[in-house]
Structures are given as structure tokens and as C-alpha cells.
Amino acid sequence: MRARSERTLLFLVGAVQFVNVLDFMMVMPLGPDFAVDLGIPTSRLGLVGGAYTFAAAVAGIAGTRFLDRFDRRTALGTAILGLVLATFTGGLATGFGSMLAARLLAGAFGGPATSLALSIVADQVPPERRGKALGAVMSAFSVASVFGVPAGLELARIGGWRMPFFAVAGLGLVLAGSSLALMPPMRGHLEHPGGQPTSHLLRRPLVLLSLTGSAAAFMASFAIIPNIAAHLQLNLEYPRARLGLLYMAGGAVTFGTMRLGGHLVDRAGAPAVAAGATALLLSVLAVGFAFPPAGLPILPLFVAFMVANSTRNVSMSTLSLRVPEPAERARFMSAQSAVQHLAAAAGAALSSRILWEADGRLRGMTGLVAFSSALSLAVPFVAAGVASGLRRRHDARETTATPR
Length: 404
Known about the structure:
404 residues; mainly alpha; Growth Hormone, Chain: A; two-stranded antiparallel sheet
């Protein structure tokens, strides 16, 4: 693929992914708004957020059986259309049950949409540029943090909580529809159909090792992420009114660092970048969460956490894209999506068992940091193992292909 066409395709895939990420990110900040109107107890808002994750995990498992049978563009278009419909339905919710159903539907389509977007990047971009390309597509998270979520909150303030749901659905229909219309058909993986059955794919040692790395990274992250706001406010006395500033600053910085991280992966290799990001993450967890000193500057701490976490994710995602064969890629990415969502849910659930609130403070953070740090330490070693396995596979194929 020519460089200009490649950049155009990455922009289009990034636009689709922006809609997907924004749909996922905006719901929890809006939770207190629609909880009052729909009579939902705030204690049950976690179930609304968890519904998306659960449905995405189930869809990921189901997707391993059929996603590689279709044109990538057609499959992605179907997934995004379903996501748009689910988001619009959320804006029509009349109570807890209907909102929960809308978020389940969103996860059922949003999870496969992510798997397909990453599969398109892997199919169309050569391995030597794949890290940079993946960093560009994954920067949709940063754009959603900086622009999408604050805009959604402002829309809710002006026009009510339903307005952001309708706005995102409309934006998704226009933006994703236009992007998909401009994408070429993507049927190259169908020219070499089959590969091993999914059950065989998931029994390969290299596949299992890659999925283990993804699970460790996501469980470690989501043991911490759902509790950041409470930790900052209760333990570090950070004002609630300035939380939006943190997310805007973190998103703005990671927009550039994710691209830089992808470039470093292409140059230095995923294991080295994962090790560097993990070292930064462990430092942030120790200083900012386990043993915070008096007068700790919160803004650079939060930005460093987002930079470390996102850079590690780029390195691991770039590496994992090399594990499956082209004809198996969407199935593998769908399985990985399921593993990541289940690991994230497990990390969040475990954190709720470790932490407790007493005397107006969030207790147990040191133990939670120890758990997250132990999992995080495993990630660079798993990355090195996957990279070593990929080299051995490549050398074996070169030896087989070389005439004697």
C-alpha cells in the first residue's frame, strides 16, 4: 500500500475507532445525571458500566468463530451500525432495565468493532511500520478524552443527559458511514482461508502466551483505574471540580506519546518499550498511590500514569498483531478482546474487595498497588517471550523455505 493511501486508511479507521471509544468513555461521567432522572441508585451505576464490558467479552468469544469469514469493511460497518443503534437506544432509556439493555447491546457491537479495526491495521500496514500505525489509531482514546467527553458533559448541562447519546449516535452515523464508504473492500485474508480451527488456534503456546500478557496488563490497569478519582479526592484532597482538567491534560499528552511509543516499538522492539513503560508505571504507583508524600503534584502524576499505561498498551498490541496468521487475525483479535474485557472486569471486581472507605478516606490502596505492580512486572517478561517465539517461528519458516 502506498504511503498516502496508508495514511488515509489509518485516518478512516481512527475516525471509526473514535466513535467507538467515545461511546464507551462518556457513559460513566454521565451516570449521576441519568441516575437521578431514571431513578437508578448510584450504587448500581457500576452495573451499567460493567454491562458493556461483559457483552464485549461475550461477543469477543463468539466472534472467534466467524469474523474472519467476511470482508473486513463489511464486518466493521455492521459492527459500527449496531453500536450507533445501541447508543441511540440509550438516549431513549426509561429506567435501569432499558439502560442496562442498551449498554449490553453497545458492548456486543463495540467489542468486535475494536477487533476488526486492529485487524485492518495489521492487514494493510507492513510489520516495520505497524507500531507507529497502531499508535495513530489508538490515539482515538486521547482525542475522545480531550474533546469528546468534555463536549458530552457540556451538552448534558445544556440539553439534558439524553442529548450526548443522540449526538454521539448522529456523529457515529455520519463519521463512520463516510469513512466506511471511502474504504476499499478488504478481502485479502479470504484468499488464504481457513487456518486451523479456533480451538486449535487458542491452544498454541505462542497464542496463549500473548493472551496471558494482555490479561496481565488489563487486570493490573483496571485494578487501579476505577479508583483513581476516589483516591485523588479522598486521599489526596484533589478538588472534584478540577477532575476534568486532569483528563484533558492526560489525553492531550498521550495523543503525542502514543504515536511516539508506536515509533519506538518499530525502532527498539516491543519488549524494550514495554519494559520502559512498566518502570514508569511502577514508579507512579509507588509515589502517587502507595506512599504519596505531602504536597504531591497531581497533574504530572496523572499524566505520567496515562502515558505509561497507554505506551505499554501500544507495545503489547503491536506485538500481538504478529501472532496470528492473516486468515486468523480477526478471530485472534476477537479472542484477545474477550480476554482483555474479562481481565478488566476481574481487576475492577477484585479492587472492590481490597479497598474500603473509613473516616472519609479510601483504605487498602497499598495492598492494591502491590497486586497491580506484581502483575505489571510480568508484562515485559511475557512480551520478551512472545518476541522470542515470533523470531523462532520466522527462522523456522526461513529454513524451510531455503532450498538445499
